[in-house]
Write a structure and sequence with these properties.
The protein has a domain at 40-139. The chain is built from five helices and no strands. It is mainly α.
Length: 159
């Protein structure tokens, strides 16, 4: 098992062999729930609360590292989506996820998550994004199929 800057993304004190897929699905599900309210401040509030609640020193050791890495993964997927929206759709985006503000958070929380350098932290976050984002998209699409959400680009009253 690798530690600190290694590739093991989630480690629990009670489980040295965690289910990474389950962890990524949980992050994707949480992110989808935030997006379902169509309120950008909900996503930034959730990320800020994640760091506040999971990054406090009530959690110790590997479990604390796992919790902070969870927050980093949630933060990264929101950051990437915000960057895509500001670039592709020319929207102002959420200032909580602008590049400078986000880098300040990562500079603080990366070492707290026992990443020894930026490269290993970004490798982790890019890896989690590859699992988290498709989970969020699949959940959103499955809800559209049940008519809980309006169809893409559609008007809910037109159905």
């Amino acid at each position: 098992m690798q530690h600190a800057g290694g590739t093991t993304p989630i480690v629990r004190n009670d489980n040295p062999y965690p289910d990474y897929k389950d962890e990524m699905i949980q992050i994707g599900t949480e992110y989808d729930a935030d997006l379902s309210f169509n309120d950008l401040s909900r996503v930034s509030t959730d990320v800020a609360n994640c760091y506040k609640e999971k990054g406090n020193h009530a959690f110790l050791g590997n479990y604390r590292v796992q919790q902070i890495r969870y927050c980093l993964a949630l933060d990264y997927v929101a950051y990437k989506d915000n960057q895509a929206a500001t670039h592709n759709y020319r929207t102002p985006g959420n200032p909580y996820f602008d590049k400078e503000t986000t880098i300040q958070r990562w500079d603080h929380w990366g070492p707290e998550a026992e990443f020894t350098d930026a490269e290993s932290m970004f490798k982790y976050m890019r890896g989690t994004y590859a699992f988290v984002k498709p989970t969020q998209v699949n959940i959103t699409n499955s809800l559209r199929g049940k008519r809980i959400l309006p169809p893409s680009g559609g008007n809910p009253s037109a159905s």
